Amino acid sequence: MKNIVLIGFMGTGKTSTGKTLASRLGFSFLDLDEAIETAAGMTIPQIFEQFGENGFRAREREAVLKAAERRNTVIATGGGVVKNAANMDALRAHGVVVCLTADVDTILSRTATRGERPVLDGRDAGDRRAAIEALMKERAALYKGADYTVDTSDWSPLLVVDDIVKFLRGRGLLHE
Ligand code: S3P
């Protein structure tokens, strides 16, 4: 079985959806951000502080290559994984890519806490909504490459998962 790769902007619910989807399908679950933190022995904000965004992206790239070797795994990625086309090529080689989206208000409320998302904190000069909107615009084209897209703004993880499962079945991607 292929992997199921969840991409999408920060705060679109990749981790919670991924966990629910994996248990529903009997797949393993891998959170890339968590794998990066474990490998580095540091939190993501600490990695950004010490090594900068480039240092984080290099670690992200290594974690992607490892994750892409797996099978039967739901892989929740970090929102910026799409910035490197080679990341997506590796994940796509044995994976179907599902993009989660959400409206700006939802993302704003899910990512309001400072100190957790260095990319947003760094661009937020007092107007977090403006920072989110600008970054969403910058990345919009990159998230368009998914095989399927689900808006999670008004949906619980269970409903989102139902929708993804329906898509996978329709494509004949589940051996049930
Ligand atoms: C990032 C998103 C984060 C994490 C890192 C960078 C980004 O993951 O990988 O802070 O550039 O969008 P989440 O999307 O899980 O918050």
Looking at this protein, list some descriptive labels:
alpha/beta, 5-stranded parallel β-sheet, 176 residues, binds shikimate-3-phosphate, 5 strands, 8 helices
Notes on the protein architecture:
With 176 residues, the chain is α/β, with parallel strands linked by helices. It contains eight helices and five strands, in the order βαβααβαβαααβα. It has helices spanning 14-25, 32-40, 44-68, 85-93, 104-110, 118-123, 128-143, 157-170; strands at 3-8, 28-31, 73-76, 95-101, 148-151. It has a five-stranded parallel beta sheet with strand order 2-3-1-4-5. Helix 1 crosses helix 8 (157-170) and helix 2 (32-40) packs across helix 3 (44-68). It is globular and about 50 Å long. The chain starts with a strand and ends in a 6-residue tail after the last helix. Bound molecules: shikimate-3-phosphate. The site of shikimate-3-phosphate has 10 residues, from helix 6.
Please outline what is shown here.
By secondary structure, this protein is α/β, with parallel strands linked by helices. It has helices at residues 14-25, 32-40, 44-68, 85-93, 104-110, 118-123, 128-143, 157-170, and strands at residues 3-8, 28-31, 73-76, 95-101, 148-151.
Helices, strands, pairings?
Layout: E1 3-8, H1 14-25, E2 28-31, H2 32-40, H3 44-68, E3 73-76, H4 85-93, E4 95-101, H5 104-110, H6 118-123, H7 128-143, E5 148-151, H8 157-170
Parallel strand pairs: 1-3, 1-4, 2-3, 4-5
Helix pairs in contact: 1-8, 2-3, 3-4, 5-7
Give the C-alpha Rg. 16 Å
Shape: globular
H/E order of the elements? EHEHHEHEHHHEH
Uncertain stretches: none
Largest sheet: 5 strands, parallel
> How many DSSP H or I helices?
8
The end-to-end span amounts to: 11 Å
Q: Which percent band covers the strand fraction?
A: 5-15%
Give the strand order of the largest sheet, numbering strands 1, 2, ... along the chain.
2-3-1-4-5
List each distinct ligand once: shikimate-3-phosphate
Question: Share of helix among residues?
Answer: 55-70%
Structural class: alpha/beta
How many E-type strands? 5
- Mean pLDDT rating: 96
